[in-house]
Every structure is written in C-alpha cells, then in structure tokens.
Amino acid sequence: xxxxxNSCFVTLTILFLWRVEEIAEACSxxxxxxxxxxxxxxxxxxxxxxxxxxxxxxNDIYGNSIKRIKYDIxxxxxxxxxxxxxxxxxxxxxxxxxxxxxxxNGTEYLITGKLEADGTMHITLCDFIKPWEATSAxxxxxxxxxxxxxCDCKITRCRFIPCIIHSPAECxxxxxxxxxxxxxGQAKHFACIKRSDDSCAWYRGEAQPKRDFLxxxxx
Length: 219
Ligand SMILES: *[C@@H]1O[C@H](CO)[C@@H](O)[C@H](O)[C@H]1NC(C)=O
Known about the structure:
The longest helix has 24 residues. The strands form three sheets. The protein has a five-stranded mixed beta barrel with strand order 1-2-3-5-4. Strands 7-8 form a two-stranded parallel ribbon. It folds into two domains: about 100 residues, CATH 2.40.50.120; about 70 residues, Tissue inhibitor of metalloproteinase-1. Chain B, domain 1 (Alpha-Beta Complex), CATH 3.90.370. With about 220 residues, it is an alpha+beta fold. 2-acetamido-2-deoxy-beta-D-glucopyranose binds next to loops. The site of 2-acetamido-2-deoxy-beta-D-glucopyranose has 4 residues, from loops.
C-alpha cells in the first residue's frame, strides 16, 4: 500500500513538473483587435515569402547557439514602418517560443512586426499575421488611414459580462462575449476612432468617416 501511494505521489509529481515545463514552454499572447496590432507594431506590410533558412543569431548566456528562421520576402506594400523595403523577416524556430510559420507558395500575407535595434524585422505568434485574402475589406482599407486615426484610443477586450470601461477614450471590444470568437464583427468591420470631443467610438470601416465623427453608425 505504502509503495503504491509513494509511486502514485512520484507519478503525480512528475506529471505536475511536466505540466509546469509545458506551460513554461508555451507561447501565449493576449488576443488583440487588428487595430491594436497595427498601433503596437513598428512595421506593417503586405508580403509574400520567397525563401526560408535557419540562421544563427548569436549565443545565449550558456554559449549555446540561438537559431532563428529567416524568411526572405518580397514586400508588396508597406502600411507602417521606416521608408525602406524589407527583404527578410526573422522569427523564432518553433511555435513553443512564439515562432511563426509562413508558407512559401505565393501566399500574400498581412504581417505586423517589430523593428529590432539592428534594423531587422522580427515577428512572433503575438503579431497579427493573416493571408491577405483572408482579411476583410475594412481591415484592408483601415491599414492606410483609419487604424492610425485611432491609435490614441484604448480598445478594451471584454472577456466576461459585465465589462467596464474607465474612460471615454475607450472602445469595448465585445466579439468574444457576443460571438465567441476574436475574429468577429468588430475585428472585421470596425475601427475605434477618436472624435472631436476626444472620446472614442467604433466606426464601421466601409463608410466614409463623418467630418466631426459624432454620428455613431450601427453595424
Ligand atoms: C499555400 O499553402 C497553404 C497551406 O498549405 C494553402 O492553404 C494555400 O491554399 C496555398 N496557397 C497557394 C496560393 O497555393
């Protein structure tokens, strides 16, 4: 009996440690509205992959070499970023460490990313990366102006009802509670834009913005 109990304890301990390990290894990101992804990024481009290789990115503190995936890309358009053309994007080698898998078959992607100190572009699973043709008309259009107009607004994700906003400069993102998906109506068709009185509200992307932004349009 004692042996069984002990062995059970050991097994549980191992299982527990294994779980902890797994959690520590997993990449997790808070879901963000595409406008937030745009505003939080240094670089937003439309591009396709034309090559892929595993490259060295120096050593860690133990002297082990760090690998990264380098995607050679063809940049089709830049929506945000420094005035130059990127011909490569870097990411971590596996999804466990937030690396992104892009397909090299002509698929064009919308890609948000960070600019590193050395001027290279780096992407993670927490970025907004989607095949261009899977993005909505509003998302495509908002990249050129609308999202930028709302970067001073705060988009607050509603996870459970009731949700509270703390200032008039916030838009409540309710896709999850209403549609049980983060790729819902507000993500696909709306941008959160600052109005003339400094408050923020959702605007449907297809319509031309009103001059004073005081009419809220319904979906
Ligand atoms: C590229 O590959 C992806 C994943 O395998 C597939 O879903 C997509 O349809 C392919 N696209 C083209 C243009 O072949």
